[in-house]
Amino acid sequence: MNNKVFILLISTTFVIHAQVQDPKAEAILDAVSAKYEVIKSYKADFSYELENPQAKVNEKFEGNIMVKGNKFTINMGNQVIINNGNTVWTYLKDENEVNVSDFNPDDEEITPSKIHSMYRNGYKYLWLEEEKGKTGTHDVIDLVPENKNKNYFKIRIWINKKEKSIARWKIFDKNGNRYLYQIKNFDPQAKIEESTFTFDKAKYPNVEVVDLR
């Protein structure tokens, strides 16, 4: 997984409708953001799927995340991504290598710590439908970046209507990739140690450190 993840083309009809912010979508997103902002830290399991029908790519992984403020740790597939709010460590398990870089909160990457609030700046949003399924009823909302130079053209978010929580989101990349993240076992009362958000070299014998700063 590229830690600068995520989103292609939008139909003419959608662009026309998205010129004015959708008040229904805004009210739902505001409620979700308000809920997440009072959560000090949380843990969750998730599933991740990368698909590209044209390239016949379909990859699936299971993972888990821990978030505390603007800090987060993602463990998924071949990678562990650790962000302490200033530094990002990307550990590649198979290579036993860690890449170290500065964290820039203004970068385009979509992170677990801001997925609930990113709609506020630089996006048009539109409520699409109410979708019923096995895990409950969800409001489906599209976010479209105003900056057309981003590497994605749309983020679709499914919000649990009853709990006002994000159940899953899908990123539509301009190169045809689709990234789907589905949240499972969400724990909003998790107690997470600060050490979780720092790469401890001692735990990875003979790890190769590549400092990109």
Overview of the structural elements:
The chain is mainly beta and 213 residues long. The protein is built from two helices and twelve strands; from the N terminus they run ααββββββββββββ. The protein has helices spanning 12-18, 23-37, and strands at residues 41-52, 57-68, 71-76, 79-83, 87-92, 97-102, 123-133, 136-145, 152-160, 165-173, 178-187, 208-211. A twelve-stranded mixed β-sheet has the order 7-8-9-10-11-1-2-3-4-5-6-12, covered by helices on one side. A hairpin with a 3-residue loop joins β4 and β5 (87-92). The longest helix has 15 residues, at 23-37. It is globular and about 50 Å long. Residues 1-19 have low confidence and may be disordered.
What is the overall pLDDT average? 86
Radius of gyration, CA atoms, in whole angstroms: 18 Å
What spatial order of strands do you see in the largest sheet?
7-8-9-10-11-1-2-3-4-5-6-12
Portion in helices: 10-25%
SS summary, helix count: 2
Q: In percent, how much strand structure appears in the residues?
A: over 45%
Given helix and strand content, the structural type is mainly beta
Uncertain spans: 1-19
What is the element string, with H for helices and E for strands? Answer: HHEEEEEEEEEEEE
Morphology call: globular
Total DSSP E strands: 12
Give the biggest beta sheet: 12 strands, mixed
Give the N-to-C terminal Cα separation. 20 Å
